[in-house]
UniProtKB/TrEMBL annotation:
This is Kinesin-like protein. Residues 34-130, 177-243, 302-329 form a coiled coil. Residues 704-713 have a biased composition (Polar residues). It comes from Daubentonia madagascariensis (Aye-aye). One of its GO terms (cellular component) is adherens junction. ATP binds at G426, Q427, T428, G429, A430, G431, K432, T433. Transmembrane segments: none annotated. Residues 715-724 have a biased composition (Basic residues). SMART domains: KISc.
């Protein structure tokens, strides 16, 4: 029984323990905690919703855009920040919902565990009841056995036998109890973990709440700023409106005043208008009658004009007839004049005193002119006055155009098939190149001549076809070179034409066809470049060489097929200064000798031609030989003697003028040229060289002039005087 008592006690204590455990497990605290958290969560959610709605409201309130305002920038920044914050809020919300889900899962699991615990407890209770029932049964059996004393021992024995059975059942239930306790401990562990998780989620919630509060404060600040800005803008706007209004009022006042002035003006104008209207009406009446008057007047005027025109017409016809006659006469006179002037003319051109002449007595002027005779020039040489008479003298005042005017007729005769030579003679620095080439702004004879040829040829273009070609050559130390060729160093030879015409030609001499001033400028430029690349000191070189520009004009009469060729030779001669025999040696002396030789040969040839000598020494120099066909026959030659006016050059000037006069004075041969023709005969001593070694009166050493019938054999000359 003691044992049974003990077992009873143990059972009771175990039941108590189970009860305690149950109360402990009851989770009322945990449940409370969870509920609290859930309530808290709900509150936070509501708060968030409120924030969101507030945000939406803020966004919905239209903010007046104020362009250019610095606040708009700031507010844009704030808006950006806001959207960022919203994003963060959304993120946090997601996290929160995750946590909520977790909490929910945990609660579910807790409920499950509780259920299981309840089941266990119920089982235990049943077991206990069964055991207590059996205990009661045993008690009853014991009592009944006590009543039956003899068999007590037996009963005890059965009790003793049954007692081990109960013991076994107890131990089983103890083991189960143990197991349940373990399970409870495990559940407790799980609960603890859950609690921890809950705590961390609580912390997170706190953090989120703090963040939300921060964002809210920021939002509030931005909102406040925006409101302030809007207010200031509103103030600005009101101020501007007020100012504009004040200004408009002032202007209105001025306009009102103006209007009043205009009104008074209008009042004064009205009477004037009235008189004007009267005048206008009167004029209108007059105008209405005007066309009739006008028609009348027009008719009479027309008749008068018609009559006048008729008179003028007849007058014009008469004048035209007279003009044509005069033109013919003028042409005749011109031809006569050229004839009278002779085929060889010598003119002088005195250049102005230049800076290069220096100062002092050396640069004093030594040249004077005759005011009544433009062919006379006076020179004061070493105190003695000397006078010369030439065909014409140009003073320093003469322009390039004046000089050209003088040679113009010569140049145009080239178109008619005459050969022409124009020489510039004189000491270095006397103006030869200036006269022939001129400057870029003020060109000389060369360019002007070509220009004239172009325009003349153009004028005749309806009846004639012309081609103009140019060549440029140089003679230095009796060597002929092509200035337009690819090999300017190459020596050129002068040959007789193989066609038996007796004309000369230079094989390999470059010819360029030219059609306009641009072309000739290009040709000149090319020739000049050739010369400058060949010689380092061009000035010095050009003063010691003869430069030739040869223009050939070939024409064909379209109706008759008649052909003419005229050659214009423009020669810038080497400097005529004499080199003192003592000062010069070597190459300089050779140069001087060559120049001397060729210039005196030229003088001799011209003199021989002008005096109509039978022998013309063309072959004495390259220059005269080359120009042979342009110097003889019907050719025309002009020598421009260039003169420096200054004192220090007087001896060279004297020499040049003497040369000029010598060349000119031979002209005065007896009788007119035409008469000469008749006196020629085959028996007369004919002296001329290779081309005419078998003398034939018709042999011609020059190109044919157009007037074929009037030309005479140019290469044959009667020897009138002994050659100089
Ligand atoms: P040359 O060719 O005879 O050696 P230039 O023609 O070179 O002489 O003339 C020498 C200088 O005198 C040049 O500077 C030139 O411009 C100038 N000159 C020559 N004649 C005249 C003139 N009629 N008017 C103005 N300057 C001239
Ligand atoms: Mg020169």
């Amino acid at each position: 029984t003691v044992k049974v008592e003990n077992l009873k006690e143990k059972l009771i204590s175990q039941a108590q323990e189970v009860c305690r455990l149950r109360s402990e497990l009851g989770g009322t605290d945990l449940e409370k905690h969870r509920d609290l958290l859930m309530v808290e969560n709900e509150r936070l959610r509501q708060e968030m919703r409120r924030c969101e709605s507030e945000l939406q409201e803020l966004r919905a309130t239209p903010v007046a855009p104020c362009p250019g305002c610095e606040h708009s920038q700031e507010s844009a920044q704030l808006r950006d920040k806001l959207s960022q914050l919203q994003l963060e809020v959304a993120e946090n919300k997601g996290m929160l919902s995750e946590l909520n889900l977790e909490v929910q899962q945990k609660t579910d699991r807790l409920a499950e565990v509780e259920l299981r615990l309840k089941d266990c407890l119920a089982e235990k209770a049943q077991e206990e009841e069964r055991l207590s029932r059996r205990l009661r049964d045993s008690h009853e059996t014991i009592a009944s056995l006590r009543a039956l004393s003899p068999p007590v021992k037996y009963v005890i024995k059965t009790v003793e036998v049954e007692s081990p059975k109960t013991k076994q059942a107890l131990s089983e239930s103890q083991a189960r109890n143990q197991h349940l306790q373990e399970q409870v401990a495990m559940q407790r562990q799980v609960l603890k973990e859950m609690e921890q998780q809950l705590q961390s989620s609580h912390q997170l919630t706190m953090q989120l709440r703090a963040q939300i509060a921060m964002y809210e404060s920021e939002l509030e600040r931005a909102h406040g700023q925006m409101l302030e800005e809007m207010q200031s803008l509103e103030e600005d706007k009101n101020r501007a409106i007020e100012e504009a209004f004040a200004r408009a009022q002032v202007e209105m006042k001025a306009v009102h005043e103006n209007l009043a002035g205009v009104r008074t003006n209008l009042l004064t104008l009205q009477p004037a208008l009235r008189t004007l209207t009267n005048d206008y009406n009167g004029l209108k009446r007059q105008v209405r009658s005007f066309p009739l008057l006008l028609q009348e007047a027009l008719r009479s005027v027309k008749a008068e004009i018609g009559q006048a025109i008729e008179e003028v017409n007849s007058n014009n016809q008469e004048l035209l007839r007279k003009y044509r006659r005069e033109l013919q006469l003028r042409k005749k006179c011109h031809n006569e004049l050229v004839r009278l002037k002779g085929n060889i003319r010598v003119i002088a051109r005195v250049r102005p005193i230049t800076k290069e002449d220096g100062e002092g007595p050396e640069a004093a002027n030594a040249v004077t002119f005759d005011p009544d005779d433009d062919a006379i020039i006076h020179l004061l040489h070493k105190g003695k006055p000397v006078s010369f008479e030439l065909d014409k003298v140009f003073s320093p005042r003469a322009s390039q155009q004046d000089v050209f005017q003088e040679v113009q007729a010569l140049i145009t005769s080239c178109i008619d098939g005459f050969n022409v030579c124009i020489f510039a003679y004189g000491q270095t620095g006397a103006g030869k190149t200036y006269t022939m080439e001129g400057t870029h702004e003020n060109p000389g004879i060369n360019q002007r001549a070509l220009q004239l040829l172009f325009s003349e040829v153009q004028e005749k273009a309806s009846d004639w076809e012309y081609t103009i070609t140019v060549s440029a050559a140089e003679i230095y130390n009796e060597v002929l070179r092509d200035l337009l060729g690819k090999e300017p160093q190459e020596k050129l030879e002068i040959r007789l034409c193989p066609d038996g015409s007796g004309q000369l030609y230079v094989p390999g001499l470059t010819e360029f066809q030219v059609q306009c001033v641009d072309d000739i400028n290009k040709v000149f430029e090319f020739g000049h470049t050739n010369r400058t690349t060949e010689f380092t000191n061009l000035n010095e070189h050009s003063s010691r060489s003869h430069a030739l520009l040869i223009v050939t004009v070939r024409g064909m009469d379209c109706s008759t097929g008649l052909r003419t060729t005229g050659k214009l030779n423009l020669v810038d001669l080497a400097g005529s200064e004499r080199v003192g025999k003592s000062g010069a040696e070597g190459s300089r002396l050779r140069e001087a000798q060559h120049i001397n030789k060729s210039l005196s040969a030229l003088g001799d040839v011209i003199a021989a031609l002008r005096s109509r000598q039978g022998h013309v020494p063309f072959r004495n120099s390259k220059l005269t030989y080359l120009l042979q066909d342009s110097l003889s026959g019907d050719s025309k030659t002009l020598m421009v003697v260039q003169v420096s006016p200054v004192e220090k050059n007087t001896s060279e000037t004297l020499y040049s003028l003497k040369f000029a006069e010598r060349v000119r004075s031979v002209e005065l041969g007896p009788g007119p040229r035409r008469a000469e023709l008749g006196s020629w005969s085959s028996q007369e001593h004919l002296e001329w060289e290779p081309a005419c070694q078998t003398p034939q009166p018709s042999a011609r050493a020059h190109s044919a002039p157009s007037s074929g019938t009037t030309s005479r054999p140019g290469s044959i000359r009667r020897k009138l005087q002994p050659s100089a």
